[in-house]
């Protein structure tokens, strides 16, 4: 299997898969140390554009599975047309928390959402629109702040990856319950963050933008806040 993404969450996923006896064919990330999390000598590819490396992915993959973990890149036709099964671990519940996880957490708190979580889903041509395989939910308390929800979301991603890895590796396609129609689809990216100033008087604004230790890992939110509070 191939892993595409970056950071500590990716490394934990790669390490867990290797420790469970799964062959890690390639780690596609900015940092070669992400591959070393599996074992010394694990192939690494630094691809600023994963779609431009479609031929490399096709040549490397031995089981037809690509995991997207803490991955900011979008898979497009060059990769999607390879016939690989691409599975994404998303920090957020779908379809209501699509897009950048950092932005989704901000607006989940601003909108008064009472739960958050992580989702594992198949990747299609849309953004976080593929079929949901499994999800892990947790409640949002009335005093919870951005960094608390974000951290729980990261932990939920790791838990969900470990839970679904055996089934995905075995070719199974487990399905979570169909999305509740009362929870409409929502997409949160840079355009949503550009309108963050419109919410500065909201009662939950302070806790929704308390980045805490995630300030360095949520540059889009930090940049939007700088524009709101020059």
From TrEMBL:
Gene Ontology cellular-component terms listed: cytosol
Reaction equation(s) it catalyzes: N(1)-(5-phospho-beta-D-ribosyl)glycinamide + (6R)-10-formyltetrahydrofolate = N(2)-formyl-N(1)-(5-phospho-beta-D-ribosyl)glycinamide + (6S)-5,6,7,8-tetrahydrofolate + H(+)
Gene3D superfamilies cross-referenced by the UniProt entry: 3.40.50.12230
Protein's pathway: Purine metabolism; IMP biosynthesis via de novo pathway; N(2)-formyl-N(1)-(5-phospho-D-ribosyl)glycinamide from N(1)-(5-phospho-D-ribosyl)glycinamide (10-formyl THF route): step 1/1
GO biological process: 'de novo' IMP biosynthetic process
Top EC class, one word: transferase
EC numbers: 2.1.2.2
Pfam families membership: Formyl_trans_N
The keyword Transferase belongs to this UniProt entry's keyword annotation: yes
Name of this protein: phosphoribosylglycinamide formyltransferase 1
Native species: Streptomyces toxytricini
